[in-house]
């Protein structure tokens, strides 16, 4: 046996684990079906948001956070209700992750050279009671350099071990089967795929050049979720969210297909919480697509008016950035696969950001000058490109022209100019006083009590129909598939649990394939900044555990 450990999947969790295991002097084979251009997986494409608790960045902005408050928010969002079975390990992983986010996480990352943008973002604001869903305080720490800067130190460590012979990285190796012997997983077999020059995220050829088989003392599965497999997403769509959409964009490349979930299940691994998933409602079709049906998520501030496909304003608290799955459930009840934002030029230039490293060249490129330019009038360059080239944006000088453009875009003629005008005028009348019964206006005014929102995230409250705030903008929003919240059930060492409730010897899982830990440490809902962090944490835990065998 030439290797101690086989790691299946070269995304962030796989890189973290492989580096930890090799640091302990053990030999690792790192397998991935994609070409080397895709090393780092989905993490490379990310905006780079990480959930931290009571950080120096928070304290400098006057944010009072604590482990107790973070756990209160997590449990209120997760809604664990299967704790005797499917949520048993997920709940324990959640508590361990809160400890990590409030303790070792930041110093561990800083030691590897990862730093953070000084303004902390406020994602998933909730809008319910104190023990309900959402972040009570801003916790979304943006890595300086976004996703590529998260991947870089782990890729560097892996390549160092490739040079010293401890890591054997083999792209274009697709695992088809886990090999079991006397109840333990002892290896993998699969197909060597033909070389591919596909760029990162692009579909690569699945043509086979030959078979392979490898054996080791442990196998770690870090192959990701199902977000790129829309057929599987629809098959597992939870009934509580209504019917699955007929039309949906994809927020991840097509190779995020869930293959290893079923392969591991066939080898005895237990999949739990299949009905828990995380999809976004603020998606726009990428005018410069990399993968099929490539969708980009808008990271909105709280001021845009959100209308359903028939032009009816969504009820509280379905405001931009408050409750992702609550809004998804409300929109699925409308019977349409799209919705609308209506906003002004003043809102878009301060509140619109786009998710993804490639959509934030200033942060990704670590350019202070370009970041400071965000304070200048006008939308950012990537947002302006979507306004000019994207099919989902409409810009107009007055509301009648805007609504006509919205109807023309869909071809369904569902929108009434008079009804939309009535709703916006009613909203604008509420701006005449410092107090209001409109909870969205209350929320955006409250948001500006936080320095970070006031400086760079939330526009000064204003009337939408006042021409001085224009032009008017409408954005058609699609559902974008993204994360798998359930997965392979694992204990607190990352060992995969079998169908009879015991750990399977030699088999481990980390990252999204394990529901980011335990088969679903998020429960039903996420607090954001917790997906990359879940990959980091579960990869670290599994890597450290395997290093001791």
UniProtKB/TrEMBL annotation:
UniProt KW Flavoprotein keyword: yes
Every FAD-dependent oxidoreductase 2 FAD-binding domain range: 4-532
One function term, GO molecular function aspect: steroid dehydrogenase activity, acting on the CH-CH group of donors
Segment forming the signal sequence: none
Protein origin, superkingdom: Bacteria
Keywords per UniProt: Flavoprotein, Oxidoreductase
SUPFAM superfamilies: FAD/NAD(P)-binding domain
One family name in Pfam for this protein: FAD_binding_2
Database matches in InterPro entries: FAD-dep_OxRdtase_2_FAD-bd, FAD/NAD-bd_sf, KsdD_DH, Succ_DH/fumarate_Rdtase_cat_sf
Name of the protein: FAD-binding dehydrogenase
Source organism per UniProt: Cohnella herbarum
């Amino acid at each position: 046996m030439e290797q101690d450990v086989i790691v299946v999947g070269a995304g962030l969790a796989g890189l973290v684990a492989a580096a930890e295991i090799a640091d302990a002097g053990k030999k690792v084979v790192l397998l991935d079906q994609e070409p080397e251009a895709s090393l780092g997986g989905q993490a490379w494409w990310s905006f780079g948001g990480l959930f931290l608790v009571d950080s120096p960045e928070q304290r400098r902005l006057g944010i009072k956070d604590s482990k107790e408050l973070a756990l209160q928010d997590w449990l209120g969002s997760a809604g664990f209700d299967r704790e005797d079975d499917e949520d048993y390990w997920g709940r324990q992983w959640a508590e361990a992750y809160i400890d990590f986010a409030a303790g070792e996480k930041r110093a561990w990352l800083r030691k590897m050279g990862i730093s953070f943008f000084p303004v902390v973002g406020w994602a998933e604001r909730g809008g319910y009671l104190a023990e309900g869903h959402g972040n009570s305080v801003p916790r979304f720490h943006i890595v300086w350099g976004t996703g590529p800067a998260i991947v870089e130190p782990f890729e560097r460590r892996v390549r160092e071990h490739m040079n010293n012979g401890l890591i054997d990285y083999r792209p274009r190796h697709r695992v088809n089967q886990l090999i079991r012997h006397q109840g333990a997983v002892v290896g993998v077999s699969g197909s060597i795929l033909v070389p591919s020059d596909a760029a990162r995220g692009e579909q690569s050829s699945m043509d086979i050049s030959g078979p392979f088989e490898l054996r080791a003392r442990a196998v770690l599965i870090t192959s990701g979720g199902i977000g790129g497999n829309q057929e599987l997403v629809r098959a597992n769509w939870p009934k509580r969210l209504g019917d699955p959409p007929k039309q949906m964009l994809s927020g991840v490349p097509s190779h995020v297909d869930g293959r290893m979930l079923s392969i591991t299940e066939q080898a005895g691994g237990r999949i739990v919480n299949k009905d828990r998933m995380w999809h976004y409602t603020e998606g726009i079709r990428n005018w410069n697509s990399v993968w099929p049906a490539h969708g980009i998520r808008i990271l909105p501030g709280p001021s845009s008016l959100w209308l359903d496909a028939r032009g009816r304003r969504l009820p509280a608290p379905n405001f931009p950035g408050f409750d992702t799955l609550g809004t998804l459930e409300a929109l699925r009840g409308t019977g349409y696969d799209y919705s609308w934002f209506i906003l002004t030029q003043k809102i878009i230039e301060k509140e619109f950001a786009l998710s993804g490293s490639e959509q934030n060249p200033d942060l990704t490129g670590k350019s202070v000058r370009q970041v400071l330019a965000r304070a200048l009038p006008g939308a950012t360059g990537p947002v302006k490109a979507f306004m000019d080239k994207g099919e989902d944006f409409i810009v107009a000088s007055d509301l009648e022209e805007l609504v006509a453009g919205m109807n023309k875009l869909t071809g369904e003629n569902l929108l009434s100019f008079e009804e939309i005008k009535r709703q916006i005028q009613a909203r604008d009348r509420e701006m005449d006083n410092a107090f209001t019964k409109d909870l969205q206006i209350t929320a955006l005014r409250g948001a500006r009590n936080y320095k970070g929102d006031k400086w760079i995230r939330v526009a000064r409250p204003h009337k939408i129909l006042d021409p001085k705030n224009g032009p008017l903008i409408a954005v058609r929003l699609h559902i974008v598939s993204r994360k798998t919240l359930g997965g392979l059930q694992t204990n607190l060492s990352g060992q995969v649990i079998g169908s009879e409730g015991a750990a399977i010897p030699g088999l481990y899982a980390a990252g999204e394939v394990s529901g980011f830990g335990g088969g679903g440490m998020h429960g039903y809902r996420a607090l954001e900044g917790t997906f990359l962090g879940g990959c980091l944490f579960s990869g670290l835990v599994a890597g450290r555990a395997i290093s001791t065998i």
